[in-house]
Design goal:
68% of the residues lie in helices and 0% in strands. With 99 residues, the protein is mainly α. It has one domain. It is globular and about 40 Å long. It starts with a helix and ends in a 6-residue tail after the last helix. The mean pLDDT is 86.
């Protein structure tokens, strides 16, 4: 599992723990959400010419990861370009300053 995928897994799968014990399986929708988030992080990193880890931390700290988590149902139907634009807007509105 890639490092970015591990970060995203930890952030999103934490909510799927039941009484301190991880479930033995991961629901398909959660797997798709993790994969989509990893793609968005990597595309954001490419567009900004930064390392994917830096991109993940930036998106996480400025509510971009939370935005993808909360709006997955809509965002995954958009083009990646639109999703990346949305992330840039969300992060900028939450104090992000990548230029």
């Amino acid at each position: 599992m890639s490092t970015i995928k591990q970060f995203v897994y930890r952030v999103l799968f934490e909510k799927e723990k039941n009484c301190g014990e991880e479930r033995r399986y991961m629901p398909e929708i959660l797997r798709k959400q993790i994969d989509y988030t990893v793609v968005c992080v990597n595309e954001f990193a490419k567009k900004r010419s930064i390392h994917p880890r830096v991109a993940f931390l930036y998106l996480y700290n400025h509510k971009g990861i939370h935005f993808l988590e909360e709006n997955y149902d809509i965002e995954h139907t958009l083009s990646l370009e639109d999703a990346i634009e949305d992330l840039e807007i969300i992060c900028k509105n939450n104090g992000g300053k990548l230029d």
